[in-house]
């Protein structure tokens, strides 16, 4: 499965250098992960009712090109590696009109029991997407 989320860069996301501030890319990636979960029919409230939450443990991001105000970016999220209690999502941000790579990231996520806050096996409802 792959999710694709389009984002328009707003003026409030631009820094003093005239391009998207580096911290905003992390927010874009988070929106992409939320879209991935929604397409998998596992948004936060559903996972929580099943007794799970997911916690981001590591983000390794490469900033490739700058994006500017009014650019239309696409955040692409794909399953990566699957472990016992964790998994990775591979994400890219492209400038849609030119298919230009803006950033790419590998995000490690841990599955946690909602009550005990301890790592647990990745549930089957998530495993099937890997």
UniProtKB/TrEMBL annotation:
Query: Which SUPFAM superfamilies does the protein's record reference?
Result: Thioesterase/thiol ester dehydrase-isomerase
Recite the UniProt keywords alphabetically: Hydrolase
* The UniProt record lists the keyword ATP-binding: no
Q: Which domain of life is it from?
A: Bacteria
Molecular-function GO term, any one: fatty acyl-CoA hydrolase activity
Checking Pfam families in the record gives: 4HBT_2
Q: Which family does it belong to?
A: Belongs to the 4-hydroxybenzoyl-CoA thioesterase family.
Name it.
Thioesterase
Q: Can you name the source organism? A: Sulfoacidibacillus thermotolerans (Acidibacillus sulfuroxidans)
